């Protein structure tokens, strides 16, 4: 193959002064005619060459997007989770037990989901307005987190329900913890969360863990009932971090 360099000049009217220095990989003889529908390999190659000459080597953006670049980043900055007081921090042995118990629940649900003959006969059809906070609150208050309620929920409803439960945790006052029924719902939704996780689901899980860590950090470790108050919070943080593999949030 010849090592000679050839200069091809672009034929576009708005790029007449642009020149490119290239080495042709293939040579097309002068006897080859340009056809609208190529019938041979050389005719096809000639058509590609001609079409390529209509485009500049470097594509430039003619619009100014600099005004949109302020306060923007290709990364999402997350706040670091609040640290647990030493007296309330769970041991790794305790966390392993929670993950093992949760895995058993997930396996049980998985067996039921794969065999609809095992589904409860009184399975409820859930009708909740997707973005209605009051509608979700009413649903959580008037129903119990049983298989008949959660088993048939679609992936999008599971994600949205878990997101609403995290918003409900915003109402927990400093020094208090999650109420028992809300905790049951969170555990039930975590147990039904589909894997592999979608990016939106991961974000929701991480928000839940950070919120639980924030609530836990406001509980006085010297209070007599402090170990009981932080237990559900420790469980949710543990499951998000160690079962769903968001290890940077782990205690």
Automatic annotation (TrEMBL):
A GO CC term assigned to this protein in UniProt: SMN complex
Q: Does the keyword section mention Cytoplasm?
A: yes
Q: Which GO terms describe its biological process?
A: spliceosomal complex assembly; spliceosomal snRNP assembly
Keyword set, alphabetical order: Cytoplasm, mRNA processing, mRNA splicing
UniProt cross-references to InterPro entries, sorted A to Z: GEMIN2 (IPR017364), Gemin2/Brr1 (IPR035426)
What sections of the sequence does the record tag as coiled-coil?
A: none
Q: Is Transmembrane among this UniProt entry's keywords? A: no
Localisation: Cytoplasm
Function (record text): The SMN complex catalyzes the assembly of small nuclear ribonucleoproteins (snRNPs), the building blocks of the spliceosome, and thereby plays an important role in the splicing of cellular pre-mRNAs.
Q: How does it assemble?
A: Part of the core SMN complex.
Please report which protein family the annotation says this sequence is part of.
Answer: Belongs to the gemin-2 family.
Name under which the protein is recorded: Gem-associated protein 2
Species source reads Galleria mellonella (Greater wax moth)
